[in-house]
Amino acid sequence: MTFSANIGKAVAAVMACAIMVSVGGCGSSASDGATSSSSSTAGTTITVVASINQWGMLAKEIGGDKVSVTSILGTTNVDAHDFEPQTSDIATISKATVLIVNGAGYDEWATKATTAADTVVNAADTVGASDGDNPHLWFSSDARTAVAKEIADAYGKADPSAKTYFSQRLATWKKSESELEKTMAVFSKEHPNATYAATESVAYYLMSDLKLTDVTPQSYTQAMLNDSEPAPADIQKMQKTLTSKTASLLINNPQEESDMTAMITKAADDAGVPVVDVTEQVPDNATGLIAWMNSLISQFDKALADDQSDESGQADQNGVSDSSSGQSDSSSSDPSNSADSAGE
């Protein structure tokens, strides 16, 4: 069985589990970037506001039909780092019973508005991350698990009568996350020597969970983490990492596009290094946070498999060429020339 088939089996298991906690589609907009999701219920519905839809989707998966979730930033068409909330967004936050923020400097506009909520779940505080750390915490399996528990606890505090319900939802979600971890293990086993470079460190935690080696030049990465433009020398190092095929894969964040990233992705294309786009916000076609992770892993697997197939085909062509060359050498009148060629 090929590694793609192994990944496919693992993916199917994840999807079967994920369906049990699927959030379905997004609802009406609260602002240009906001999305909401709610279900009618006979009891009291907890008003939940998430700064970003990554945590908003998780909030809905844990809360089920006992929560109404609004994500302020809920589209991949907005640059998360430059997002400025509207007055209506701040008003929405002020009405939250449970407010979920990312922290680590990613959504300061939301963390500054946390005083009105009864309960605040801060993902960065939950896992011990601080400003200056990589803020893309939703890509970390450990962070997702820790935040899911915090959310369930917050719901139990807001509605003690439904505490058992939330605990059961959390347990179901954990099974789905566990299946995803198995998929990651299969991927890691099938791609033990895979490396990657990234135009921006959006997927760092996911790639770490997949045990892919980051070969992005450190000076380039540091500049991007500092929200500054890498120096020309750093960009050249990045391009060389791709043209030399030191990286098996290039991760590109389409929400952070620039002339610089266009040059880097072109270098990858020219070198035959596969490029996979990874957004910060959850795409519209994703049904949940884990389903999104699963989709990304499938894309990585396909990109690496296709690249490996291309290299194998090229090696076969080279083998035919070498064989023809060898036949020509063997017909040479000077046997030593053949020996020299073979030695080379």
Attribute tags:
344 residues; alpha/beta; Rossmann fold; 2 domains; five-stranded mixed β-sheet; four-stranded parallel β-sheet; 13 helices; disordered C terminus; ZnuA-like; metal ion binding; signal; metal-binding
Structural notes for this entry:
The protein is an alpha/beta fold and 344 residues long. It folds into two domains: 3-180, Rossmann fold, CATH 3.40.50.1980; 187-306, 3-Layer(aba) Sandwich (Rossmann fold), CATH 3.40.50.1980. The protein has 13 helices and nine strands. The chain has helices spanning 3-18, 53-63, 87-94, 108-111, 123-127, 141-158, 163-190, 204-209, 218-225, 232-243, 259-271, 289-330, 335-343; strands spanning 35-38, 46-52, 67-73, 98-101, 119-122, 195-198, 213-214, 249-252, 275-277. The strands form two sheets. The protein has a five-stranded mixed sheet, sandwiched between helices. Strands 7-6-8-9 form a four-stranded parallel sheet, with helices on both faces. Helix 7 (163-190) runs parallel beside helix 12. The protein is globular, with a radius of gyration of 24 Å. The two termini are 37 Å apart. Residues 10-20, 22-32, 38-42 and 320-344 have low confidence and may be disordered. Residues 1-25 form the signal peptide. Its main location: other. Keywords: Metal-binding, Signal, Transport. This is ABC transporter substrate-binding protein.
